[in-house]
Amino acid sequence: MGQGGGLLKWPVRARLRRRPNQTTRNFQMQARQLEVFCMLMRSGTVTGAAAMLNITQPALSQILLHAEDQLGFKLFNRVRGKLVPTREAEELYPEAERIFSELGALRRRTADMRFGRTGMIRIAATTPPAMSIVPKALLSFRATYPDIVVRSLIAPLVNVVDMIRNGDAPLGIVMNNIARPGIDVETLGYAELICIVPEGHHLATRDSIAFADLQNETLISYRADTLPGQLLANAAATENQSFNPAIEIDISITALPFVRNGFGVAIVDGLLPWEQFPGLVRRPLLPRKTVPIALLTSRDRPLTGSHLAMRDYLRQACAGVLKQGEAIREQIDPLLLE
């Protein structure tokens, strides 16, 4: 009998010895249990909480029982068919509600990140696309993703390439489509090289300007070691003319003050909205020459969802800017497009 009694008592003693350790180990609430607890505290009924969480009442009751088992104390008592929070539940609720709210914010943030709706995107561009394509792309992008911070960087071509390589800017847009190690180059289109002349200049009355028209003019244009400079030098040579800028520039916008102040005429890219600058007249250059517009991305670093979206907006904006340039050219002389 004593032996039998010992066998009966052993499991009880074992449970008593293990319960403190077990309670310490499992004293935690999982996210779903926290949701159930907070919804029950808010609604006061199993029916209301289940409806708020879009689950069945038996499923909710099971989650609650599991939570109480893990915690080691009851959270609710049933009094005349109603759930009444225990003292422990009342004490836990303010902190539980705070954590529940933070979990909700975290879920919304991760969902936004998954669908590319939050974070920061960085774009590096040379000056012409930075002043023409990027603003239009950002306007469309911000209409869809108003909470995303955009960092737009303007830099020379070499620096844009470096930023793509080292990850400082996942997206780059430049006027050069030469292949480069470790970089994916996508040609978006071609920008026309044009002439800009001061208002009132005798060349402003022409529908187009040829290299022969520029031989006695003070020319402002690209250095010979740049891609546009090389294209222009070759085009002039084909026409048996010379291409010798009196003022050499790296970026087209620097020609603006010289032309506006009557220093001379310039050959620049048509990507910039030259018609928005007072005191200038824009004219097509013959023979027609274009420079590529390229989108640069790293071959080794995948784009985030928001950067993928921005890439699409840059493509659309580039197409729109080039189409606008063609419309301006056609307005000056429709025959030039034939």
TrEMBL record:
* Keyword entries, A-Z: Activator, DNA-binding, Transcription, Transcription regulation
**Listed GO biological process terms:** positive regulation of gene expression
Q: Could you confirm whether the keyword Manganese appears in this record?
A: no
Q: Which PROSITE patterns match?
A: HTH_LYSR
Tell me the ranges covered by the HTH lysR-type domain, including all copies: 29-86
Gene Ontology molecular functions: DNA-binding transcription factor activity; sequence-specific DNA binding
What is a single Pfam family found in this protein's UniProt entry?
LysR_substrate
Which InterPro entries has this protein been placed in? LysR_HTH_N, LysR_subst-bd, WH-like_DNA-bd_sf, WH_DNA-bd_sf
Q: Which domain of life is it from?
A: Bacteria
Record Gene3D superfamilies:
3.40.190.290, Winged helix-like DNA-binding domain superfamily/Winged helix DNA-binding domain (1.10.10.10)
Which family does the similarity line name? Belongs to the LysR transcriptional regulatory family.
Q: What is this protein called?
A: Transcriptional regulator
Species of provenance: Rhizobium freirei PRF 81
